[in-house]
Each structure stands twice: as C-alpha cells, then as structure tokens.
Amino acid sequence: MKNYFDLSGQVAIVTGCSGGLGVQMAKALASQGAAIVPIARRQEKIDEVAADIAQEFGVPTFAVRCDVADTQMVEEMVDKVLEKFGRIDILINNAGTGAVAPAEDITDEQFSHEMDIDLFGTFKVARAVAKKAMIPAGYGRIINIASMYGLVGNKVAGSSPYHAAKGGVVNLTRALAAEWTAKGINVNAICPGYFYTPLTKETLDSEFFQANARTMIPAERYGNEGELDTAVLFLSSPASSYVTGIMVPVDGGYTCM
C-alpha cells in the first residue's frame, strides 16, 4: 500500500512552534517520519516540544531559538539547521501575533509589530530557507500559515493589522510561488478558521463568540485538534507536486458565505 504522505528522511522547520497549532502541525509531520526543527523565541518551550516529539515519534529533532523579525537570527538559524542536517525540505511559516482593538484605536506600534512578525517575518524565513537550502537542492515545500482573516474582514473582533498582515501573506504566497515553482519549490498557504489554542480559548469560549460561530460558520463549530493535519501533510508531501500558489481555507466553511 502506498503512503502518499511519507516524509521519511525529510527535514521540516516549523516556526511559532512553542505551543498551539505549531506543535500540532509539527507532530503531524513527525508522524510521517520527518525530522522536526521547532522554532520560537523561548528556548525552554521549544526544548520541551523537541523532546516530546522525539519521544513520541522517534524522529530526530533540533530546537533552535529564533525571533523571525530579526534578520540575523533567521539567517543564523538556517545555517545551524543546514550544519546539523544538511538539508531543509519543508518550511511551515506559522509564527504570528494578533492585536485586537477597534481600527480607530490601533497604534502605529501595534500595526508595525504585526507586519514585522506575520508578514515580514514570514518573508525573511522563506527567503533564507529558499536561498540557502531549497534553491540549491532544486526542491522544497513552503507552507505559509495565513488565516481566513487574510481572505475576508470581520465584525466580531477588530483586528485590522492582523487582516492586513495575513492578506499580505496570501499574496506573498502567490508571488513566491510564481518565482520559485520552476526552481522546484512549491509555495502554498493554509488559512485556518477558529481553532482552540492557549491564546484563543478565552475568546472562543465567550458567549458572544459561541453565538457568532453558530451563525457564521456553516459547520456551526470551531476546528478541533488534528483538523489541520491532513492539509499540512498534503502540501508538505511530494504528492502535491503540481499544487502551488494556492490558499487552502480550513475554516468549517466560514469563507464560503
């Protein structure tokens, strides 16, 4: 029986991998045999994640502390991974933040910070990985984690910088795919809907949000743990060789209305 998602011997970098969706996606990749490089700003957190994944899945792991907004740290992180493994096959650009406030009250600092991490950070990591590892190898899979909020607006929680940054990630994905696909690098994006993470639990559990979910999401619920896994595995695997420059909403139908 053929395993279309087999990633044995491949090396995957996952940014924003100290908890939540980053860890879930890293575990999905590890379940198919990929070596995992968890990236985040807190060393103790990614050390924990690396140890946990190595123990559960028996794959090599290598935790590297990196702030994706810091160009020098990004370049050095990629060098360390290449020194350790000699290759980078998969990049999951998941690091992000989210300022919530009415648009008229958003500060310059909030907007700039959002852009630095969600958009510019995504570009910095993709640029370094492509230039140093994937273009020379003639192969790569880059998956940018955008958001359904990169495709639409919302009236529930004002977060204009997040919408702007994730909308930028959506079109950055198309631009990078247009440039790099002929070099063997497929670039796609996943646009998650509402998923429980330590950062979103309180908001999603509020009565207001629960009522909104029933009205706005055709599935009438939030995403469960594991429901991003197959989208990540498909776009990370050699099986998606003719799929590039696309956005995959995993949102229970939110963006179809």
Automatic annotation (TrEMBL):
Belongs to the short-chain dehydrogenases/reductases (SDR) family. It catalyses: 3-oxo-5beta-cholan-24-oate + NADH + H(+) = isolithocholate + NAD(+); 3-oxochenodeoxycholate + NADH + H(+) = isochenodeoxycholate + NAD(+); 12alpha-hydroxy-3-oxo-5beta-cholan-24-oate + NADH + H(+) = isodeoxycholate + NAD(+); 7alpha,12alpha-dihydroxy-3-oxo-5beta-cholan-24-oate + NADH + H(+) = isocholate + NAD(+). The keyword Lipid metabolism applies. It holds the Pfam family adh_short_C2. Its EC number is 1.1.1.391. GO terms for molecular function: oxidoreductase activity, acting on the CH-OH group of donors, NAD or NADP as acceptor; quinone binding. InterPro entries: NAD(P)-bd_dom_sf, SDR_fam. Keywords: Lipid metabolism, Oxidoreductase, Steroid metabolism. The keyword Oxidoreductase applies. This is 3beta-hydroxycholanate 3-dehydrogenase (NAD(+)). GO terms for biological process: fatty acid biosynthetic process; steroid metabolic process. It comes from Slackia equolifaciens. It comes from the Bacteria. It is an enzyme of class 1 (oxidoreductase).
